[in-house]
Amino acid sequence: MIKNTKPHYIMWLSLVFVLFINLVAAAQDTTPWRTNEGRACIREWMELTLSRLNASDLGKDYNERKPWRFNPYGVLLGKDSWTNAAPDLFNRYENVEQWVWAHYNRNEAGRWTGSYGFFEKSTVSIPSCAAYTRDCLDRNASSSPAGAVQTTIDFVQKSERLMGDGTGDWAFPIRLIGEGTIVSVSINNISGVYSVWDTVPGNGMWATAVITGGQMRNAADGSISLPVSGTTDIMLYVADNGTSLANGNTRYRITIRFSDGRTVTIDPATSNTALIPVR
Description:
23% strand; disordered N terminus
């Protein structure tokens, strides 16, 4: 009697294929989304993307979709758009929004993957997430151990003025969990070179630009009144004085004050996340 070995052959081929796919996925999983430095670069790309999308005027249909935003799953949405389900593979990337590096990229033909064809029909210049992240990591190969990364984004200068000076700012990415209204942010050295940045107008300290969702939240005088709830990712942009951040010999403390008197502090060299105390 001759046995039919074809099903077994097909089964083994299927197992080999699944193993190959898993190996590819595992190789991808070693990419920047796993590291604090990589996540900061991906967050920088997200802020840059939102800033350029929301600043562009591409006609009525496009403008009515503003403000563009990334939801907690890292999915790009326009106004009145929503989703209540995590994307496929989200759990593979530890349920962090930085998994976006895996799909907000250009394919081999140079076209945007996924359902983002409107990028191709516009004049908005948005780099591939993977390419931007790679360049950012290269740029920050010797980034400050203070927890800040050097960027090409220019919001502030060496003064209290909220105006660029032609030099890329340094950014402290932070994440707040909880609810409250932020009324001030200060970044103070706790060792090394004396340096202070804050959002308090008129005190002579250099400005801190507070960015969420690709938009600056400071008032014209640098002050802020920013309601937050749930999980809020914020980028704090400052101008280096030439030594404290670039040389990496200074350690910082970030202090966030709320309208009801609560405060939280963050040591960005160890963690960029803080829980807002419950009232």
